[in-house]
Design brief:
The chain is an all-alpha fold and 69 residues long. The chain is built from two helices and no strands. The longest helix has 29 residues.
């Protein structure tokens, strides 16, 4: 189904996804902590939304990489 997805490429994609996922969450947490935002603050929800957008775009990128040579 995914002929371009060799074991080495799969390992690289998984490693990149782990690193990106970690850093997206770390950046969001740092912004929330440094600014003292809580769920009662609008910027908290913007930070959460951007974090989730970045996760979603990462998965779009993974699918693109899995389908291309």
């Amino acid at each position: 189904l995914f002929p371009a997805l060799t074991p080495g490429r799969l390992a690289a994609i998984l490693a990149a996804e782990f690193v990106l996922h970690y850093h997206f969450d770390w950046l969001k947490d740092q912004a929330v902590k440094r600014n003292g935002w809580t769920s009662h603050d609008t910027p908290f929800w913007w930070a959460l939304g951007v974090d989730q957008l970045m996760h979603g775009l990462t998965y779009v990128g993974i699918v693109w990489l899995a389908l291309t040579a």
